[in-house]
């Protein structure tokens, strides 16, 4: 893992939690959980170097759990394994195996615990390593329903540890978008993140946390906002009647936010050149459904589709996050801004908006970077921290 190459930078060394180990180092199965406000992420390490003696001694319940988790891509109605993110030939705590990435809505925690109980997980695991707010909120539920304890790890420490580990072992993890506003030229380009420090880490989940990272144990939380992925989903459900994040993104993909938002050119008739504001820049979100300077226009509201509303909501939330991130980067004198979190899952619209904003408003000095495993780094960090990695 790369060492801190910066000197003289302001920084805050975070105090680490030291919970008891989740299980003995050799016991299986190995899980890491990140229980967020909207989505729960589960990482499962499947060993591939099992010896004949281990195979003979392995209890049937553990074999059943392994088969169930690795042979399915869906669990019940809402649990999913992101098979495209699977990582093979990974070494953790001296063992070689495969990392599996599973997610489910946090609102379905009751069903998750019932499933864990039905598969006999409680007979094998007494403590689960977890991070995120849900590690506190659901602690009693784990104990009551499946007689499991939660060993809690600091959320931001786990996030950074997991991110740096995955980026180190996956040469294609980090990338940026070239020509993000030109569909015919836009593409993902690998980025060499081997010398990462300093960088700004923008974690977009239900809300947003922004960290300035100067080394693996040298970072500080410098800002955040409550307007994140949860806000986008909540507003979309209210405005369009959609029922899931995936549906909201699908609607936004087909929508046109300029039918909802008022642009600079709607006010100035073109660019506002004095301050470098292009005419197609959003000047006021959701104002176009109103008559300028008059009361709300029912005709304009009726002309707006569900897709347009979803797109405008997505652009509003993304622009706000990008603006805050850019100001933080300027204040910290940092040029690389790394965006992570499940808000970016199946969401190239926001990634391209962020890529364009970082480049345009910094005159090309800032670069927006993205990571393939988006929202799973906290769960991976738990897995590593449990073994002291």
UniProtKB/TrEMBL annotation:
InterPro entries: ATPase_NBD, Type_II_PanK. This is pantothenate kinase. GO terms for biological process: coenzyme A biosynthetic process. Its main location: cytoplasm. One of its GO terms (cellular component) is cytosol. Belongs to the type II pantothenate kinase family. Pathway: Cofactor biosynthesis; coenzyme A biosynthesis; CoA from (R)-pantothenate: step 1/5. The keyword Transmembrane does not apply. Transmembrane segments: none annotated. Residues 1-21 are annotated as: Disordered. It is an enzyme of class 2 (transferase). It is found in: Cytoplasm. Its EC number is 2.7.1.33. It catalyses: (R)-pantothenate + ATP = (R)-4'-phosphopantothenate + ADP + H(+). One of its GO terms (molecular function) is ATP binding. Residues 1-14 have a biased composition (Polar residues). The keyword rRNA-binding does not apply. Gene3D superfamilies: 3.30.420.40, 3.30.420.510.
């Amino acid at each position: 893992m790369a060492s801190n190459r910066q000197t003289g930078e302001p920084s805050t060394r975070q105090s680490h939690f030291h919970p008891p180990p989740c299980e003995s180092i050799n016991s299986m199965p190995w899980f890491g959980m990140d229980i967020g406000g909207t989505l729960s992420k589960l990482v499962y390490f499947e060993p591939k170097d099992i010896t004949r003696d281990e195979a003979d001694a392995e209890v049937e319940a553990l074999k059943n759990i392994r088969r169930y988790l690795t042979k399915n891509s869906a669990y019940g109605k809402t649990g999913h394994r992101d098979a495209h993110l699977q990582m093979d030939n990974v070494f953790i705590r001296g063992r070689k195996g495969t990392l599996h990435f599973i997610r489910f809505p946090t609102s379905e925690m009751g069903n998750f615990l019932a499933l864990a109980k039905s598969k006999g997980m409680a007979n094998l695991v007494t403590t689960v390593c977890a991070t995120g707010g849900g590690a506190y909120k659901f602690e009693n539920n784990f104990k009551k329903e499946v007689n499991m304890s939660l060993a809690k790890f600091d959320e931001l420490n786990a996030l950074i540890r997991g991110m740096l580990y995955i980026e180190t072992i996956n040469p294609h993890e980090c990338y940026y978008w070239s020509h993000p506003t030109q569909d015919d030229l836009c593409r993902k380009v690998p980025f060499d993140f081997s010398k990462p420090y300093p960088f700004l880490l923008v974690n977009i989940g239900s809300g947003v946390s922004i960290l300035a990272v100067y080394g693996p144990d040298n970072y500080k939380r410098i800002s955040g906002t409550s307007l994140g992925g949860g806000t986008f989903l909540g507003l979309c459900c209210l405005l369009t009647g959609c029922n899931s994040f995936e549906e909201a993104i699908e609607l936004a993909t087909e929508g046109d936010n300029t039918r909802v938002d008022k642009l600079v050119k709607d006010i100035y008739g073109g660019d506002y050149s004095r301050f470098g504001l292009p005419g197609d820049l959003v000047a006021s979100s959701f104002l176009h459904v109103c008559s300028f300077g008059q009361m709300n226009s029912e005709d304009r509201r009726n002309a707006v589709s569900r897709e347009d509303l979803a797109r405008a909501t997505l652009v509003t939330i993304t622009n706000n996050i990008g603006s805050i991130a850019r100001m933080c980067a300027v204040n910290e004198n940092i040029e690389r801004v790394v965006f992570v979190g499940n808000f970016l899952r199946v969401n190239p619209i926001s990634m391209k908006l962020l890529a364009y904003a970082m480049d345009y408003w910094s005159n090309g000095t800032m670069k927006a970077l993205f990571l393939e495993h988006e929202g799973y780094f906290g769960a991976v960090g738990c897995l590593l921290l449990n073994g002291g990695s």
